[in-house]
Amino acid sequence: MGFDKSSVRLLLYAKKHKVSFDSVITIGRQKLLLKKTVLKKILQEFNVPFSDNTLDSIINANEGYAESLLKLFGATITDSLDFSDYEGASFIHDLNNILPSNLEKKYSLVIDGGSLEHIFNFPTAIKNCMSMIKVGGHFIGITPVNNLMGHGFYQFTPELFYRIFSPGNGFQVEKMLIFEIKRNPVFYEVADPESIAQRVMLINNNYTYLFVISKRISDLPIFLSNPQQSDYVTMWKGSKYNKREYRIKKIIPKKLILFVRPLIKMIMNRPKRGFSKLFYKKVNIITHKD
């Protein structure tokens, strides 16, 4: 586990969007997976002041782990939590099990850089992460979403995180981006399926990750009721979810229409390949402002 060039850019994007790095805990101790020249370029892109001595200390300190980088971003506390002590984490705890009370509401930021997909009891693990965050603090997740079957137990979806980090649980999603693992990745903002009344889907060929920033806005009980997929909630309420209507000209014989309509519906409903503008909005994370 570790922060590569995309992860570091996304962390700086989060900092630009007022995420506090004052007290940080990472899920798993994170390695810094980039060279000094690349880190220097990224810091320059985001106008972060540094010296060569600072860069050397970040790259060489802590046996290559990322605590020094987080301190550059403003952290005064840089803890980590893991199942095992094999990487020297600050706290040893199995996130499949309920969190110790001494870690609740302790941090301004919890970062999952790619651990939650490896934890079998995901609902308990994500609740533990949420429980560690102070009101006003944030969760950052960088997690597999497509074409990584076998990497962990799970691949996650935008719908899952929009429903988990909801006001009913004391949270709200502030940003959700998606990107493919490429030399020069393109980042897209992801629509909330509930807001557009459609399932947000993707068919592509490359390893694809989701980036989530969510804020704890109140001290409500987490998962007092279970999250539900938004299109089913809409149907249960008796409302109509967005579905395409397919009209076939009357000149076609009725028997042929009965045969053709299901085929047309199946073809038209199948998601198109790539990042549909209906679901995804391209964004430059270095220059983007709200």
Key terms:
single chain; 290 residues; alpha/beta; Rossmann fold; 2 domains; 9-stranded mixed β-sheet; two-stranded parallel sheet; 9 helices; 22% strand; globular
Order of helices and strands: EHEEHHHEEEHEHEEHEHHE
Task: Calculate the terminal CA-CA distance, rounded to whole Å.
Answer: 31 Å
CATH architecture of the largest domain: 3-Layer(aba) Sandwich
Largest sheet: 9 strands, mixed
Structural class by helix and strand composition: alpha/beta
CATH topology of the largest domain: Rossmann fold
Instruction: Give the amount of beta strand, in percent.
Output: 15-25%
Number of domains: 2
Corresponding CATH superfamily of the largest domain: Vaccinia Virus protein VP39
Uncertain parts: none
Query: Overall pLDDT, averaged?
Result: 91
* Spatial sequence of strands, sheet with the most strands: 5-4-2-6-7-10-8-9-11
**Count the strands?**
11
CATH class of the largest domain: Alpha Beta
